[in-house]
# Entry
Amino acid sequence: TALQFGYELEDARLCSRFLEPSDRVLELGSSIGFLALYCLKRIGVAGYAMVEANPHLADTIRENFALNSMTVPHLFNVAAGPEEGEV
# Structure
């Protein structure tokens, strides 16, 4: 599958190597929620917050969590930039 050859696999390896169940994670750029699902299901991190700027991905994130019988953690649909306003 695409996940086996994409950057997600290396990200998951890094999370497994450096994160502990007692850790709390703030993920910037959550995309479809793969890494959040991995950290919550496989590592069991204590807390997770997701930030994703693309408003079209929020439904995909929710769907992926539902497919995995998981509750969506804190999800912020925002972007960071040099000045206040909308993008």
Observations:
- The first helix runs from residue 2 to 5.
